[in-house]
Automatic annotation (TrEMBL):
Source species, domain of life: Bacteria
Pfam family, one: Polysacc_deac_1
Domain NodB homology: 77-290, 641-843
Keywords in alphabetical order: Hydrolase, Metal-binding
Keyword Metal-binding among record annotations: yes
Protein name: NodB homology domain-containing protein
Gene3D superfamilies in alphabetical order: Glycoside hydrolase/deacetylase
Organism, scientific name: Sporomusa silvacetica DSM 10669
Amino acid sequence: MKSRTMVLALILIIGISLTAVFFYKDFLKNQPVREYHSNITLDDLYNADEEVAQALAQLEKSQEKATIVTGVPGSSRQIALTFDGLTDRNTVQQILVLLEKYNSKATFFVDGLHTVEDPQTLADIKNAGQKIENFTLLGMPKMENLPIERLAKDFCRAEKIVKENATQEPNLLKCNDTKYTDQVLQVAKACGFKNVVQSDAFFNVRQGNAATTDADAFVAALRPGSIVSVKLLANIELITNEPGKTDLKPAIDKQPGLIEMSQEGLREPEIALAVEKLLIALQKAQYSTVYVEDYSKMSSKTALWPDYSNQFALLTKTASFLQEQIMALFSCPIAYAAESIGQPATEIKTIFTTEQALSYTFGGLTKESVVNDVLERLNKLGIKATFFVSEAEMKKYPQIVRKIIANKHEVGIAIRPKAGESLEETRKSIMSSSRLLKEQFGVSTNLVKQVSGPVLDTTKEAVGSLEYKLIGQSINIVQSKQKDYTSVDAIMAELFHKSMLSLARGQILYFRMDFYTDDQIVGGLLESIKQNKIDNIAYATFYDNPINNRANNSQYMIKPVGEILNNTKYTYQYPVDLQKVPPHLRHDGPEIAINSHNFLSTASQHYIGQNDVNFEDRMIGFSKMDERRLDKTGFVHTKDNVIFLTFDDWGSDAAINKLLYVLRKHNVSGTFFIITNNVLYNTNLLRAIAVEGHEIGSHSDKHKPMAVMDPRTHKYVKTQEKEEYFKDLATSYQKLREVTGDVTSNGKPALTRFFRPPTLAISKMGMEALLDTGYDYIISGSTSTNDYKAKDITQLVDTIKEGVYTQYGEVKKGAILVMHMGDSVIYTPAALDILLTANEAKADSDPSKFKVGRLSDYLFEGYSQINRKKH
């Protein structure tokens, strides 16, 4: 009896302790939320000055150090597998497929820089069920040599980037090739990291086949309980270039080109192959894999039971252990049933659509005066928006909800999951809100928005199980420091970077109506954003603008989220299904292998040059004799009165949409040679170019010319090695294919294997790489319009005419005009409009009337630029 009483008392004590610990942990949880637009600079996007200041202040108070997590020796045949840094998305996707294939767990330590460049990769990792942790901002080695302030800034900013893009708090920090000195550990602790990770085994995947053959030997030498590191990010050396100068010593990153890629797209095949060999070797040796966080629960100096410094720490750890065991024993089957209903919802921050539309969304009904002001301004502007309302708001402010509905705005469900809320609790909350919205207001919706806190997996699973849409935002029109601002202009200046000239198709903007102290701010912002960042996208001249010309359809509209999502005429899948891409665009590499014997003859057939590019100017690697065999006219051989309009670089919706309208207005097609470095930040615009019937070619990924003049020697030199150029070409093509590979126009693909050299410069090495990687034609052109330097429309019209007509007024048959699509090119759309309008007014019998052709209709299979007679 006495022992039974003691057991009951012990259970009671543990229960009270667990409750206290659970509440204490929930109380300490911090769940900030903030969304940003991807075009804002890194400094603005992830400013961590406040967090750095807090970390430095904490260092002055305490010298507590983070715990080093290392392998846990033991008899169990398991290891913790980690991947350090990020590489290109498709390689990571291949690794994720392999992990699933071999039933392996892994922790991806991601660096902040690659995360900002490609946040979708983090989503891929999370969706695959793998863990994400912090690999510092740049994955810089030897960080023990950095000063305290620099360490704090690096750790805090990296934490912010990973937290916001992975929608989770990073728990672990790993520094690349760094000695964990007391200073490093103290700064890590002050920045919020309890543990730092130190691998004790490193598997090299950047030595091609040599690494794969060593996999069995590597695993044979492994110590059970090890933390195994697979480094994806190569060590970098930061170089600061002087403004306006070209780096003549680029880093050499030996990567394969298109010829070495599999049909799945761009890969680093040696990495994926090495990883698979490692997983096979681990499987043969009967090793299982665990997450590093499983090791972090133990001290680095003890195998199973930590040496706690006080009783509360012991109680906390014991409670956590008991919580895990109890949850494992008493987990309800209903959680699994909920998960099996459907796939987790993906938070939609930007809608994949080519429609000329974006969305305003609103939340927060506590200030009725603000809601009334917003509704009045929206009605005045003819805008229909989406309002997200919570169940509590429906009950407390039913008259406001009815007013929103009466004004014919869309209504969605707002949720605020509580800390620790289960999947089933979130589902019930959504269902209850949906039922109330239907019963009391007669509105059905499948749109859900979490209006505070990071969006957790349980929320995504709950929304997905109900087959609802989880709506996020591209831009959050709320920054805490602006709460008491009274000037709309001041907020606009901070909200939009100078380089962000306009908004984009498919973007979702979120306004909180209960945030600002000044009740007029929200209404002022929605008007200012429309006027300055949306209306400027339209083509508007004194003779043709959307106001006086109903046929001018260049204006972007503001529509409810659901309306854009449901317009399947414009929505699309990204990345595109590779099986929907024509076979010849999936195949990588040339039909005929290029070698020293056939290179020059092949190049001369596939190079359409430019008169100004010659042996003395922007050409290296060729002899004077070689130069004579290369085209310098820039004309396509044809007897037709046809010209070709081509556009280089990349730009915002404000610039490119005007070009698209003019071409659409005159029913002509162009070829857009895209710099792909930033194109994935606006896939909708690239897709729209293709869908409207234009051809897509590459202008490289990083826009590094094949040759630049050395300012010291005044001789032309290369800017990168062949391997680096291979990677650039392959990356560019793969990005274009991911977005436009399945688009066709009049039965022909929009995507081409055409390439325009940056600055039109060419080198023998560059042309070899282009032909080796499967590009069909290297196209410069007959006339460089220099439209980016035009002083006015009249000057540019005259320049274009010189490129189209001879001095006798005849059409220059096969002329290729080189123009641009960047934001600094302001006269090109209007100049083309004038030229094309004048041409259309001519009689069909007029010999000076030209037609605008598609390059792919003339550069057919077997076309040879060097053999005019053949055509």
